[in-house]
């Protein structure tokens, strides 16, 4: 088989594999011409450019606020709806953001700060294992 055409499963396009490799190498070839910040993907650079242009395409349907990032809008909407999907398994307190729950868990004393680079699924498993070990 020609290695040039081989792509591991899960990467249907060669560009997907290339972007994945960048997550390991730290390569950031897409550079902002305004501030010099580098990005691994062109779409991330495009999103970043809104910082410089002031573009806010994500509009709240409840009020007049607008946001440059869709995630910021989603968090904002939770303030209107009261949706608090992150629940502390120790005391039942609920939070709008996962990071607020992580900070809250530390207040219980037996949950160490999660590593900054760990994905949320890994953090959730770590906390579950630690809470089981702590209760034994």
UniProtKB/TrEMBL annotation:
Top-level taxon: Eukaryota
Pfam families reported for this sequence: zf-C2H2_6 (PF13912), zf-H2C2_2 (PF13465)
Organism from which the protein derives: Helicoverpa armigera
Residue span(s) of domain C2H2-type: 11-29, 30-57, 58-85, 86-115
Protein's recorded name: C2H2-type domain-containing protein
Alphabetized InterPro entries for the sequence: Znf_C2H2_sf, Znf_C2H2_type
Subcellular location: Nucleus
Keywords: DNA-binding, Metal-binding, Nucleus, Repeat, Transcription, Transcription regulation, Zinc, Zinc-finger
Family: Belongs to the krueppel C2H2-type zinc-finger protein family.
Gene3D superfamilies: Classic Zinc Finger (3.30.160.60)
């Amino acid at each position: 088989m020609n290695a040039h055409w081989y792509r591991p499963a899960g990467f249907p396009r060669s560009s997907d594999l290339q972007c994945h490799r960048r997550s390991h190498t730290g390569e950031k070839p897409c550079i902002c011409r305004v501030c010099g910040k580098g990005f691994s993907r062109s779409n991330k650079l495009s999103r970043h450019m809104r910082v410089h242009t002031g573009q806010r395409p994500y509009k709240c349907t409840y009020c007049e606020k607008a946001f440059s990032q869709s995630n910021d809008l989603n968090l904002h909407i939770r303030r209107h709806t009261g949706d608090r999907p992150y629940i502390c398994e120790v005391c039942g307190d609920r939070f709008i953001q996962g990071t607020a729950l992580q900070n809250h868990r530390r207040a219980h004393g037996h949950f160490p700060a999660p590593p900054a680079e760990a994905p949320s699924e890994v953090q959730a498993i770590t906390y579950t294992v630690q809470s089981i070990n702590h209760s034994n």
